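JOB MANIFEST
job_type = single_chain_structure
chain_count = 1
residues = 149
[input]
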Amino acid sequence: MDDLTSAAPALTGIEQLRQMMRGERRIGIGDTMGFSLVEVEDGRVVFAGTPGLHVYNPINSVHGGYAATLLDSACGCAVHSKLSATQSYTTLEIKVAYHRAMTDQTGLVRAIGTVLTVGRRAAFSEAKIIDAEGRLYASATSTLLVMSN
């Protein structure tokens, strides 16, 4: 068979995420916003990035969309780590709370995503963004739709 994609075995969600962490698969939004997947476990992931001027808003601080994107990625990929090779997901709802402003002086931040529950059709997860000293910058809860491929 010449078509390598159809010959390749399907990967579970955690296997896909581990490929991304090793750089074998790209995360386009991470390239765009300057963050990467740095830890993957069953039901838990960590993204890391350093917010800078490239994500500033007109009021001279890091745009809330940077935090929201990190949190959505962490919530979603935590659920992704629990899925079989025949499942996928999409975010239905995310609620973000901003606790502290980020600037280009904040330094490295980590978005830690954790699964709360995964059911047949819905999953629930949470995430938080902290800096190197453990200060909380933003948090989120998310509801995700689990689908069979």
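[summary]
The CA atoms of residues 56 and 62 lie 4 Å apart.
Residues 1-7 have pLDDT under 50 and may be disordered.
exit_status = 0
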